[in-house]
Amino acid sequence: MKVLSGALALICAALAVHADNVANVHVDTGGSAVIQLTDSNFEKLTQASTGSTTGPWFVKFYAPWCSHCRQMAPAWERVAKELKGVVNVADLDATRAPNVAKRFAIKGYPTLILIDKGRMYQYKNGERTTENLVAFATTEYKKTISSPVPAPLTFMGVIIDFLITGVQEAQRIYDVAFRGFFVISSFSLILGLLLGMICSIIALAKNNSTLHAAKTARTTRKQD
């Protein structure tokens, strides 16, 4: 009985911790209603792969240097406040969370994705106003085509992706260097040919001048 009681106590404690974590999802961060997501907390908070207990998430993938991202920040904050308790509204800095950005194949900023029950819906059309974004997150997303949420990158997947990226970058550098070498070599060859032609012309002119002077001297001696 003591063992059973201890096991039940551990289960209850684990459930309490889990419930506390879920509740903390809705706590404002730094006075903002927008939740900050990272590589380390994304799956834990959103449960994007299963969508089991945390509810829908409306995530803005952004970059700090993106002017459009900065311009929509006030509207995004209003969206978070209006949807609080209904939809979790979050920011994810793709430059500091590269694994999640690669997982969702983020190519441009801002990218707005609603995640609900293992499916994702991207906001593509329409102005990024508070009204449009709230409408999309609550009802309009159902009218768009959804796709399954991609699985989290595994450790091996991260390593493979790193290697592939490294090979692609090395290939890019090689291509740029090869093109640069080809251009420089071609320019050097053409310049060398031009200089050679100029030197040949100068040498030929000097030789003709010397021959002409010698011929003139012989003619003068004959006349004498």
Automatic annotation (TrEMBL):
Which PROSITE patterns does this chain map to?
Answer: THIOREDOXIN_2
Among its keywords, does the record have Metal-binding?
no
- InterPro entries on file: Thioredoxin-like_sf, Thioredoxin_domain
Any Gene Ontology biological process = response to endoplasmic reticulum stress
One Gene Ontology molecular-function label: protein-disulfide reductase activity
The UniProt keywords, alphabetically, are: Membrane, Signal, Transmembrane, Transmembrane helix
**Which Pfam families does its entry note?**
Thioredoxin
- Signal sequence region: 1-19
Its GO CC terms? Answer: endoplasmic reticulum lumen
Q: Is Nucleus given among the entry's keywords? A: no
Question: Membrane spanning segments where?
Answer: 181-205
The cross-references to SUPFAM superfamilies, in alphabetical order and at most eight, read: Thioredoxin-like
Domain Thioredoxin, residue spans: 13-142
CDD domains on file = PDI_a_family
Protein name, entry field: Thioredoxin domain-containing protein
What is the originating organism of this protein? Babesia ovis
